[in-house]
Amino acid sequence: MMDRQLGTYDSEATRSDSVVVAVDDAAIPNGRLFTHDRSIPSSEDKGLDRWGDLKLAYKTLGVVFGGLVTSPLYVYPSMPLKSPTEEDYLGIYSIMFWTLTLIGVVKYACIALKADDQGEGGTFALYSLLCRNFDIGILPSKHVISKSSVSHANMYGGFEKKNRLGNFFEKSLIARRLLLFIAMLGMCMLIGDGILTPAISVLSAMDGIRAPFPSVSKALVQALSAIVLIVLFLLQKYGTSRVSFLFSPIMGAWTFTTPIVGIYSIINYYPSIFKAISPHYIVHFFWRNGKEGWLLLGGTVLCITGSEALFADLGHFNRSSIQIAFLFTIYPSLVLTYAGQTAYLIKNPYDHDDGFYKFIPRAVYWPIFVIATLAAIVASQSLISATFSVIKQSVMLDYFPRVKVVHTSSSKEGEVYSPEINYILMILCVAVILIFGDGKDIGNAFGVVVSMVMLITTVLLTLVMIMIWRSPPMLVALYFFVFFVMEGVYVSAVCTKIPEGGWIPFAISFILAFIMFGWFYGRQRKIEYELTHKIGVDRLRILLSDPTVQRVPGLCFFYTNIQDGLTPILGHYIKNMKSLHKVTVFTTLEYLLVPKVAPHERIVVNKLGLKGVYGCVLRYGYADSLNLEGDDFVSQVTDSLRAHIENSSGLVPSVPLEVEEEISDMEEAKVAGVVHIRGKTRFFIGKNCSWFDRFMLAFYEVLHNNCRTALPAMGVPIPQRIEVGMLYEA
User: Domains, the chain, ranges and CATH?
Assistant: First the structure.
């Protein structure tokens, strides 16, 4: 596992025991850490769990499926159709039907959701799952592996002998870096999705004003869309639960009204539309249209947009609720809605530029317009929530600069909100609408994001199937061939749209990837320096033996990034301050590549062989919240130390008076005063540094100086904080 420096977390919205770490099981409702724990329910709870899943499934409508179920607003308008025929529309519908069925039902609902990392989903969850089961991290400090349940490599059935692919990744640094790059690219593309989904959804819905009022200009539609989005982003601070409670009825109305309109269109315009389900219509479509048909895939791929949120938002809900909502409401709704749209367009082939609103009967036009506008707002929510989730995961794994993350629910550990990310997304969404107001340009960019995220998920899922699930080779080959070829064709089609707006997500992803790599590179170099210049216990004993060094009263928590030794800042501190507190606890904040760490495994303490000197490891996963108050933290660590001292005295012959004296010294030090010391390090870039190091480390320093610090997340009072500055030679 990798040692991780603390990401900054807050919990202004909640102070519930169910999210406070290092508490007894008795303090947790139902004896569980979180109220929707994924553990197997008892027979008495099955009925309640089913009812809970149904309620969660209803809530998913307002968070998870917004982008997917509102895709009929912009799919047909995004297609560059010239002179479409009946056979063309039947072929297009057949492509959309099988895309929804294979990618939506088979890949995401039936396979991807089972590849969760203890309840967390998304590309980074897949990456961390692989890292946790195999030694494929690329930091030199990755070899800290827990023997407890937090690092059980056999969570999917167990295996002792690693397969050839796992051994290859462990031995090849290039392969490990490529895997990290793929995971980073997937996360960056998903964030790009979080920018483009609100823009295209709201803009497409608001464009419905222009049908009854042709005098309304595009500029006015863009301005109204921007205002709607600003209000939406301002609501994010209230949390996913409150937002979903407000939005789920809206999305429920959309999900059930659009297929009704679709059935009406099927009956009135083309009752035999479902014959297009036959795949031979796809073959005929490409046979007739050739390259033009291939280019149209850039529009048809949008029918599955939002499916990535189905997996990425898993931490906000659970597998059963998402599967129930998708298979029994979302999927049938989309199949019928697209069938109705296609039936209308077969009889009105040149109305595809406004393919949604034109097929709405006049009698229900305005009610559907209102529902569509509200549903587009809900669609924006799904990817905004997913973006918050992946940002939190990457911060916890130290691949992204520390930002503030607020846990907005006391019962769902996956519900998070980041103010900085929220306002950055808001600015970018509004900019996309105002600068690239043409729906076709945004649609082209959207197609690039959707297809790239799907392809990356397929690659990572294939690795999980081979390396962790140990699936039969034939099944893995079938899965990879079908989805990689299908999504690869989609990617090849959308890449032709790069000059026509498709460059937008690549620009966003490049900037994000550059930030992530710069942060990661700087963190790697710092940890390498600390491991090279670490201080051992023997060296510490020599430093303390100096008669000029005094042991001053008080309890000191000295934070370090490494466990195999002590931070070089300690030597810098002792040499210059000529002192060390009588009781000093060297504290490492260790972030394991798991979503959650059991409460009894969070605080691990031990003696370091010197009087009054102890080690403490605080373990957290990327789905755990870290909202300890300063006093609570101190009390829990000292209680753990007292228990450790008492237990060790029973195992090793010891004088009871020495144990009592040790405990008494700790209590006296706590009363005398508590101080928290952490390093404030910077790189000294000398003349021998390469131009690459000069540039990347300077960029890292900019990021480091502008991101949040680690200590405030512990609730440490400002008067108790001390920062020790030190230069690390690059």
Answer: 48-73+83-154+181-519 (1.20.1740), 534-729 (no CATH)
